[in-house]
Amino acid sequence: MNIEERQSLQQKVYIHLKEAINEQIYKPGDILNERKISAELEVSRTPVREAFKALEAEDVVEYIPYRGVMVKSLSVDDLKHIFQIREALEVLVIKLAIDKINNETIRRLQQCVQSQEDLKDNAGNRIQEFIKLDMEFHNILADTSDNPFLKQLILDMRDKVARLGITALYSGPQRFYETIDEHRAIVSALKADDSKLSLQAMEQHIRNTYDNAMRYIETLSK
Questions:
Q1: What is the pLDDT of residues 37-92, one digit of tens each?
Q2: Considering the chain, what percentage of its residues have pLDDT values greater than 90?
Q3: Which end of the chain is more exposed for a tag (fewer CB within 10 A), N or C?
Q4: Spatial distance between the Cα atoms of 202 and 184, rounded to a whole number of angstroms
Q5: Positive or negative: CA dihedral 12, 14, 17, 23
Q6: Residue 207 confidence class, pLDDT cut points 50, 70, 90
Q7: What value does the CA radius of gyration of the chain take, rounded to a whole number of Å?
Q8: What is the DSSP track for 123-172?
Q9: Exposure of 93 by Cβ count < 10 A (0-12 exposed, 13-18 middle, 19+ buried)?
Q10: What is the largest CA-CA distance in the chain?
Q11: Residue 205: which residues within 8 A CB-CB, separation 6 or more?
Q12: At CA 136, angle to CA 130 and CA 137, rounded to 5?
């Protein structure tokens, strides 16, 4: 196997593990078994080990002596701090994107919201689809901002929240409807080329998302 093939294999293992962690297949505190993962993915242990190192560099996992590689835990305070950063980043996206929004961007955003609308009555059973559409909505805006570093920072913040196993959508069916309404408000403000209203709509959306995520945490502690 040449270097390029090895790097490609390591990347595939890395992506698989990161998605499994974000989707709570591997939860905070779980020990990742190198031998088991290599067998499941039908790869040698070397790319698994290299993927572990990459995830450790991102602060996703940590090596615990005599135990192995463990998925790192995040606290409620971490969630608060993450959303403070995410709010600032998403508002910055709007500031950068507002002058670049065109009819095609609006069409894509509206299509994304419509897809969420089509899912809403059964979203509880298809929550991962709804979440992916939510990500698509924000990614369209991040792409329009034309700042790849900003987009990566937002993705990093979303990954951290996913690792907590917490999404505002778990707070109840009402949040599905609220999310759609908030997305529509953002699109409407952008379509009207109203910078102030667009910023306010995004800011309110992220704050509502945080409030509902915290509400979900409170239900777990009862």
A1: 999 999 999 999 999 999 999 888 999 998 999 998 777 788 889 999 999 999 99
A2: 57
A3: C
A4: 11
A5: negative
A6: very high
A7: 19
A8: GGGSHHHHHHHHHHHHHHHHHHTT-HHHHHHHHHHHHHHHHTT--GGGG-
A9: buried
A10: 59
A11: 90, 179, 182, 183, 185, 186
A12: 90
User: Using an 8 Å Cβ cutoff, are 96 and 142 in contact?
Assistant: no
What's the first-to-final CA gap in the chain, in angstroms?
Answer: 53
Q: For residue 4, what are the contacts with CB-CB under 8 A and spacing of at least 6?
A: none
Q: Are 131 and 169 in contact (CB under 8 A)?
A: yes
Residue from 184, 187, 178, 164 nearest 207 by CA = 178
Per the structure block, which two tokens stand in for 208?
């509502």
Q: What is the share, in percent, of the chain residues with pLDDT greater than 70?
A: 89
Instruction: Give the sign of the dihedral formed by CA 194, CA 144, CA 127, CA 160.
Output: negative
Residue that wins the pLDDT comparison between 8 and 218: 8
Give the length of the chain: 222
116-163, pLDDT tens digit by residue?
999 877 766 777 788 889 999 999 999 999 999 999 999 988 888 776
Helices 3-22 and 34-41: angle between axes, nearest 10 degrees: 110
At 69, which amino acid appears?
V
Average pLDDT of the residues of the chain: 87
Residue whose tokens read 């572990």: 52
CA angle 20, 176, 183 (to 5 degrees): 100
Q: Letter for the amino acid at 57?
A: A
pTM for the whole structure: 0.76
